[in-house]
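[agent] plan:
  1. take the single chain provided in the ticket
  2. run structure prediction with default settings
  3. attach structure tokens to the ticket
  4. add a short note for the reviewer (M.T.)
[agent] executing step 1
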Amino acid sequence: MTRIAVCPGSFDPITNGHLDIIQRGAKVFDKVYVAVLHNFAKKPLFTVEERMELIRKVTKHIPNVEIDSFHGLLVDYAKSVNANVILRGLRAVSDFEYEMQITSMNKFLDENIETFFMMTNNQYSFLSSSIIKEAAEYNAEISALVPKEVEKALKEKFKKLHNGQK
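[agent] step 2 finished; step 3 output follows
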């Protein structure tokens, strides 16, 4: 039996915390789909395609990771790729309450899909994409917090935005 997991998220942008969970998850599961959510309620900095390309670049060394995107219910996406596990990272106790609600709803929608929680490495426990974007916009040093490809993409994106381009 192949163990297939889906690691969902906005990944706007991917951080070293996300990458830590993906790399460790790839050691546990035979295949990990990193699934970028089309969240129409949020105004992302990067397009879904840009996020997917960044994730491809930083995970190219992990042979059992595949990058994809989805909209709609996560359990429906998981079923579409024959995954029976959702892989989620936890940074702090504050994440747990929200994740517990989501996990309970997913279990209600499909009792065959399990959620696998991994604690993020302590050095990344404070990281979020929002914090990274805010720091990067003001030229803070973020090289220890994101892959170099992401740091470069953030600098380019904010330079364009500040110059009035899209």
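[agent] step 4 note for reviewer: The first strand starts at residue 4 and ends at 9.
[agent] ticket updated
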